[in-house]
Amino acid sequence: MKTTETIAAIATPPGEGGIGIIRISGDEALLVGTKILRHPSGKPIKSWPERKVRLGYVVSPDGERVDEVIFFYFKKNHSYTGEDVLEIQGHGGYQNLKKILTLVLKAGARLAEPGEFTKRAFLNGRIDLAQAEAVIDLIRARTDLAQQAAFKQLQGDLSQILKEQENSLMELLVPIEAALDFPEDEIPDLERARALEQIHEVRRALEQLLAQADRGILLRDAASVVIVGRPNVGKSSLLNQLLGEERAIVTPLPGTTRDFVSEIIDLEGVPVRLIDTAGIRPINDPVEKAGVEKARQLMAEADLIVVLFDAATPLTPEDQELIAFLQAKNPLVVLNKTDLPVKLQVETLQTAFPQAKIRFISALSGEGIQELKAEIRAELMGTAGREEQPVLVTKVRHKEALSEAIECLNLVEEGLAEAGSEDLLALNLRAALEALGKITGRSVSAEIIEEIFSQFCIGK
Amino acid sequence: MQHSFDVAVIGAGHAGCEAANATAKMGFRTLLLTINFNNIAFMPCNPSVGGPGKGNLVREVDALGGLIGRNTDLAHLQIRALNTNKGPAVRALRAQTDKQLYQRLMQNYLERQPLISIRQGEVIALDRIKDHWRLTLSTGVKYEVAAVVIATGTFLRGKVHIGQLSFPSGPQGQHPAIAFGEYLETLGVKFKRFKTGTPARVRRRSLNFAAMIEQPGDHLAYGFSHWVPWAPREPVSCWLTYTNEQTHEIIRKNLHLAPMYCGAITGIGTRYCPAIENKVVNFPHRERHQVFIEPEGLNTDEMYVAGLSSSLPEEIQDQFLRTVPGLEEVEIVRPGYAIEYDVIAPEQLSASLQIREWPGVFSAGQINGTSGYEEAAAQGIIAGINAGLYLKGESPFVLRRDEAYIGVLIDDLVTKENNEPYRIMTSRAEFRLSLRQENADLRLTDYAYRFKLISDEEYDRFQAKRQRILAKLSYLEQNQLLPDSKESRALQEITGITIQQKISLKQLLKMPAVKLSALWDVIAPEKGCLLEDEVVENYVKYEGYLEREAKMAARLRKMEEKKLPEDLDYMAVPNLSSEAREKLNKFRPATLGQAGRISGISPADLSTLLIWLTGSGR
Ligand SMILES: Nc1nc2c(ncn2[C@@H]2O[C@H](COP(=O)(O)OP(=O)(O)OP(=O)(O)O)[C@@H](O)[C@H]2O)c(=O)[nH]1
Ligand SMILES: [Mg+2]
Q1: Mind listing the pLDDT tens digit for each residue in A190-207?
Q2: For A269-278, A412-421, B467-476, which range has the lowest pLDDT when averaged over its residues?
Q3: pLDDT higher for B606 or A387?
Q4: A349 neighbors A309 (Cβ within 8 angstroms)
Q5: What is the pTM for the complete model shown?
Q6: Nearest 5 degrees, angle CA B608-CA B609-CA B611?
Q7: Percentage of chain A with pLDDT > 90?
Q8: Among residues B106, B506, B575, which one has the least CA distance to residue A26?
Q9: Mutational pocket test of ligand 1: of A228, A237, A289, A318, the residue with most ligand atoms within 8 Å of the beta carbon
């Protein structure tokens, strides 16, 4: 018989926190523990009482004390993953935790893949699919707002709204099905006008959810913002400014950034992936050439392009080329180095991007950076503020299910309006319910039959 | 006395007759045993056959070469088309039959089969002798056979209730099979108790039809069978009347005398054909319930009182019947009753309808927990085919859910914990639009020929029909109407549609306002065959939906292709939920698809199973 491999990982986010947790899950969790943990007295640990906080040391194979730690043990049936779990809390420095993890792996565990603990919890029936997805989102959620959306889903907000819509559809479907199966029983005829209204309402509710979905998916998957511009305009400097740390290398030499650099930042609750690219210019160096190619590709995939110009020099042919390339892409136009005397003709730039409102910044002094952050956020999320309705649909899979349901409801409306036959009405209503069931996990087919019998007196 | 048979069928009801016919057609010497030779293909409940879902089953059994369709056509008193305006997926036929004629025709048909011997006898024991089975009758006679189909209906330890009176009995006063039920139990078969019921039969001459609404039959161009020529008769009418507050009052006052309500019956009853007691209790706001008065046959004065099934004492039945308009002077011929009987717990059955632990022993019909003649016949033919395949050493025949209502029925039976007698419904079928009544032969008749349940001549006829349908479809695809042509003007006259540009006939037919008959009128003077045209028309009009169902079916088939080993010990599969382990060990699904349809099996369980199966290299 197959046993599950024992996995381990650092369970707290990287950083210099006070403590850090290493989680070990699987049949051999205790075996690993026995190998690396010791009593404060230095003696090996023999007994493993469940869910008890205990103090001890992590030791290396040659007996050297690596860290003073707290540890807990959870038996299969009480743990998050549904397997034996050992958690070790060490001192939080990343280097220290990495050392402990290395010992754990040497003792027989394997490094967990991202989300693998949750996957096991799901496979062991500890959590259902929607919960598993929400937990994975929660783990990945990098910012407050994204976390809110993940929490909401955990608590079933989305399910609650969808349940109401499902009930409304069921209310229509059941009498139709009953009449199809029992044509000689006295089942009231379908009131098409009323049904049409009801379907219309459900469709509107679903469409509202769908309209928010893009924003929700953005929250989960971090929007990508690409910074482009010819060499030396200050792209890397801007990235560092937005990030608040010296991440990208800045030099006075053009062509410094040769590959792209990407970092995630929190723009007032919206996770944004900032990408600094190689300056775009005609080049022969193959490495840099590849970098420029990549930049073009990133622009094509980006949610937003920030194009940077150097205020201190007039527009160059390279700038002109970039302007031509970006014509249809609606970029955010930014003039950098405004701390220096302005030599670039702003009017020329404005004619090139007639729709754009040109922003002025200095990546050196930080002038205009706060405003630029707000602009980027507004571009990505629309102009609405933080307090607007909570976002509920955060997954592509859910978005697809919603679109599918709406499509089916359109067909139902068409059928109702154009005297379509009941078998197709029922078919499309069912399909809509099944699509919603992909999100809520509700299975309609068994329910329909139950409902027919509880609502109608059937039978000769 | 001939003692050597290949297969024995126990019970000659609607399942048993189909099973025996199938094994005999497949070339096996078949012993058909009945407790009473007078009661072959007996209809102990209503005299009707068909309806939504049920009618599809009848046509499917017929397409497979079974008997219920032809026999119903030959014995019909009236036939109606139901759901005619609700779309092709749910169109259905329902016939009223002459019960005595039905029985006589079925008996004569079976008697004509050289490989079938019908014998009267009560089986009391079934024993395994190496790879054979020995049947012992109450008279001491023994038969040894290689395969058995058990089709005992409601006879196994049957117990009838009329008010406070209860006694061991088969349906309508027949001898029950007590000893056999007990014997099977000692062999380890697990039974549940189900309950069903039937209304009183009344004397035609005592009724006042002037107070009722006549329900005439339709004049239809075809019946159920693909094989016997349709011979419509002058329809014999049924009659509609209603209960009223007075009726309900009598029932309410006497509920304490109803075995269902005083605790005498422990078996579980049906919700779709409930006793009037249940209707009154469960739907107290209904002011009236429908009552259909249906003839039991031409050569009898008995009438069936559909809608008033009851197990109240006969006197009370008499009282409440008299409150119904037209029944004031009613004379009861036989009282209504409830019957409890043994049902094989479904987890003991495989999808071939074989009892898992007993190679060569199959079961079919009400004993498997269904209700209805149609459901019984459907299982009967499949059990028969599979008994035949077992004798040939071939793998069993299992219809998929996207192929036939029969597939839906049997799959539901073996994967679901049914807690009432199971009746087919169109809403149980996820491929409802594909499983239409008019295309049953296109779906199934190739199988019938493969198993030799139809003759060469019949198969030739079918193939010719299929060719004609295909030819019509390609004709519609390849031919066009031009604007301003004579034909398009004629079409405009019929349908009001103006043809603006060249358009294929198929595209035209997709328009809701265009009927195929109208197209034929315009382009071809001779009329097509109605039934074939229905196939063509539905195929064209619903092409998009049919393709969608086909795609869904393909996905399902993938899951069905993932076989689960018979001997898989689910207790040993790590990470399964304990409910899943228990259910899977109980039902032992044959495929991953089947596993998914067992209630209580979550998607997580399925992925776990899938992962485990791949991991263990199976
Ligand atoms: N005065 C002034 N200098 C700036 C400003 N922003 C950037 N610089 C300088 O411009 C030079 C180039 O800056 P980078 O950020 O490396 O420019 P880049 O666009 O990333 O250049 P490549 O990676 O070579 O394409 C550096 O010397 C920066 O210090 C600004 O706002 N004002
Ligand atoms: Mg750079």
Answers
A1: 889 999 999 999 999 999
A2: A269-278
A3: B606
A4: yes
A5: 0.74
A6: 65
A7: 26
A8: B575
A9: A237
CATH classification of A7-128, choosing from 3.50.30.20, 3.30.1360.120, 3.90.226.10, 2.60.40.10? 3.30.1360.120
The residue contributing the CA closest to ligand 1 atom 8 is: A234
Question: CB within 8 A of B459, min separation 6: which ones?
Answer: B445, B448, B449
B308 with B243: CB under 8 angstroms?
yes
Q: Give chain B's radius of gyration (CA, Å).
A: 26
Q: Which amino acid is at A377?
A: R
The CATH fold assigned to A132-212+393-441 is Four Helix Bundle (Hemerythrin (Met), subunit A) (1.20.120)
List the domain boundaries for chain A: 7-128, 132-212+393-441, 219-381
How many Cα neighbours within 13 Å face the side chain of B586?
Answer: 18
Closest ligand to the CA of A336? 1
What is d(CA A133, CA A154) in angstroms, rounded to the nearest whole number? 9
CATH node for A219-381: 3.40.50.300
Q: What is the ipTM of this complex?
A: 0.87
Residue with tokens 């002037």: B210
**B chain contacts of residue A426, beta-carbon cutoff 8 Å:** 427
Measured over the CA atoms of residue B508, residue B511, residue B516 and residue B521, the dihedral's sign is negative
Query: Sheet containing B332-334: which strands, arranged edge to edge?
Result: B213-215, B238-242, B290-295, B302-306, B201-203, B332-334
| Alpha helices by DSSP H, B99-221 | 99-111, 178-186
Q: In this complex, do B430 and A129 lie within 8 Å of one another by their Cβ atoms?
A: no
Instruction: Give yes or no for A418 touching B (CB within 8 A).
Output: yes
Residue B603 has a pLDDT of 62
Give the pairing type, strands A304-310 and A223-228.
parallel
Are the C-beta atoms of residues B346 and B368 closer than 8 Å to each other? yes
Phi, psi of A151 (to 5 degrees): -60, -45
Confidence band (pLDDT; 50, 70, 90) for A82?
confident
Burial A65-76 (b: 16+ CB within 10 A, else e): ebbebebbbbee
pLDDT at B337: 95
DSSP letters of A73-104? Answer: EE-GGGSSSSS-EEEEEEE--HHHHHHHHHHH
- Positions in chain B whose pLDDT score sits under 70: 1-2, 267-269, 525-531, 575, 602-604, 607, 611-618
- Which amino acids bring their CB within 6 angstroms of ligand 1? A 229, 231-237, 250-252, 254-257, 279, 336-337, 339-340, 362-364
